Automatic annotation (TrEMBL):
It comes from Streptomyces solincola. Keywords: Oxidoreductase. InterPro entries: Flavin_Rdtase-like_dom, NADH-dep_flavin_reductase, Split_barrel_FMN-bd. One of its GO terms (biological process) is pyrimidine nucleobase catabolic process. GO terms for molecular function: FMN binding; riboflavin reductase (NADPH) activity. The keyword Oxidoreductase applies. This is Flavin reductase. It comes from the Bacteria. Residues 26-173 form the Flavin reductase like domain.
């Protein structure tokens, strides 16, 4: 690791001038795939792969939503929401909630198995690897996205469920390691 001075950041156009190249470079980082949901009179769901843990105390999670997404307005009004970490084999669920052509409101959940969250009241995707029910904590400007933080109110782990992964522009599962090796 170099101990020298870091070079000045390149001009904005040098990095963002080729969005396809930038997307490919970002795609080198494998992410999990989630569905963020809000309950109430007009429930809404959205696929998000920009999800991460932030803090253990308080228990906080983070995800990002494009500024032009309907979900930003829905989250601004909601006190609570849920995040379902999708499992391997749930690519169809991820694609459904990423589609702009899905129906609005409760009808968008007709195509998937779900159950109501007992704490936040938001739909939880059945078969997911984990569920988090959250209270809205903070939202921050993140360029062309809004960064949303939530305080975890309740969680459910589904042991042994392999997660759905997104890498290099494609959905994947985790490949098993040779016998005896550990991750």
């Amino acid at each position: 690791m170099s101990t020298g001075t870091l070079a000045a950041a390149p001009l904005r156009d040098a990095v963002t001038g080729d969005p396809a190249r930038l997307r490919r470079a970002f795609g080198a980082f494998a992410t999990g795939v989630t569905v963020v949901t809000v309950g109430g009179a007009a429930p809404r769901g959205m696929t998000a792969n920009s999800f991460t843990s932030v803090s253990l105390d308080p228990a906080l999670i983070l995800f990002c939503v494009g500024n032009d997404a309907v979900m930003n307005g829905v989250l601004a009004e909601a006190e609570t929401f849920a995040v379902s970490v999708l499992g391997a084999g749930q690519e169809d669920v991820a694609r459904h909630f990423a589609s702009r052509s899905r129906p609005p409101g409760a009808a968008q959940f007709d195509a998937v198995d779900w159950l109501p969250g007992p704490v936040a009241g938001a739909p939880l995707i059945a078969g997911a690897a984990a569920h988090f029910e959250c209270a809205r904590w903070r939202a921050y400007d993140g360029g062309d996205h809004t960064v949303h933080l939530g305080r975890v109110l309740a969680l459910e782990e589904l042991p042994g469920r392999e997660p759905l992964v997104f890498h290099g522009g494609a959905f994947q599962g985790l490949s098993p390691l040779p016998s005896g090796e550990r991750r």
